[in-house]
Design brief:
By secondary structure, the chain is of the alpha/beta class. The protein has eight helices and eight strands; from the N terminus they run E-E-E-H-E-H-E-H-E-H-H-E-H-E-H-H.
Length: 240
């Protein structure tokens, strides 16, 4: 039997409801090239961490939960595009069994590296960290160009995209930045949804456990009225 390709996995979630449509099996890949200041999974950063598994083994884990999966499977992380062969093989196997597939990515790799993985997914959950390149580098250690190229590729290939954007008070949660992002995204027909994700402190214990200095330790979580105001910017843009 073909056991597929080996890769590094951090963990699984068998009843995910926040990573694509329906109830989903989420595979958290190990390894990420970014160092996001608001990362809630810093324990997935190390490229040599996690555990090594074969794609066929992962599919067996997924199949054991299939009766509960009204949505499908999402590859998250970490960054799945850090392991393109493993990610593409797993997506291919899932699609052969008629499971809907989603790829949660920051699009931080160039298309020549990531295209074959994107092509295998039914849906892309694309994290736009910051539209401004300098701010994106400050927040993540890398620029935004590859993510925008990824979005352009999805538009040309008619790949469904859900945009994700974290609202960090005093940084990304600023009217002028949100207005610029909403206006930039408005022409894209491939974008079916925009999720504005409030910055939260739930991962603070992970940063501490890893001996990492939390760069946003003093940053407050956004107030409900700030979140509503941000959402209104995108609603008005969508209505135009």
């Amino acid at each position: 039997m073909d056991e597929g390709i080996s890769g590094r996995v951090h963990s699984y979630e068998s009843f995910g409801t926040l990573d694509g449509p329906g109830v989903r099996f989420v595979v958290f890949f190990q390894g990420c090239p970014l160092r996001c200041r608001f990362c809630h999974n810093p324990d997935t950063w190390a490229m040599d961490g996690g555990r090594i598994v074969r794609s066929a083994d992962v599919l067996r884990e997924i199949e054991s939960c299939r009766n509960f999966l009204s949505g499908g499977v999402t590859l998250s992380g970490g960054e799945p595009l850090a392991q393109p062969e493993f990610a593409a093989d797993l997506l291919r196997r899932c699609r052969k069994t008629n499971l809907h597939t989603a790829l949660d990515t920051a699009g931080s790799y160039p298309l020549e590296h990531s295209r074959r993985v994107i092509d295998e997914a039914d849906l892309l959950l694309l994290d736009i960290k910051a539209l401004d390149d300098a701010l994106c580098r400050h927040l993540t250690g890398s620029g935004i160009r590859n993510a925008l190229d990824t979005l352009d590729y999805c538009e040309k290939s008619e790949k469904e995209v859900w945009i994700r954007h974290v609202l960090v008070p005093g940084i990304t949660l600023a009217r002028e930045r949100l207005t610029a992002l909403a206006e930039y995204l408005e022409p894209y027909r491939c974008i079916r949804r925009v999720d504005l994700l409030p910055f939260h402190k739930m991962a603070a214990f992970k940063w501490k456990a890893l001996g990492l200095e939390d760069p946003l330790a003093a940053t407050p979580e956004p107030a409900p009225e700030e979140i509503r105001a941000a959402e209104e910017i995108f609603r008005k843009s969508a209505d135009r």
